[in-house]
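Memo to structure team: turn this sequence into structure tokens by end of day. - J.P.
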Amino acid sequence: QQKGRLVHALLKQIEKQRNGEVIEASLVKKVVDSLVSLGLDETDTNRQNLDVYRQEFEKPFLEATEAYYIAESDAEQRHLGPHVADSLHYEHALIEGSGMSGGAEQS
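Reply from structure team:
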């Protein structure tokens, strides 16, 4: 299916950009604009119907975005997890040692 391949290529370009690669953003914008244009009402070109854009691009784009950021979050958590736990344990020990635990200051 041609539309599927086009959207897949478009999503790959967006992923490359998210990963810091330089892409032709103007080309990506033109393709997205074309998908929006496919939904123009033939009887009134000023009226848009975004069904084509939503079904063919927006839905897969949002799914790809969710998957990308879940993977990024998981990778970050794996990387920082032990450091965060150590830091929290250290901070807890400092609070306990300073007598500030319990939420109220003692006089």
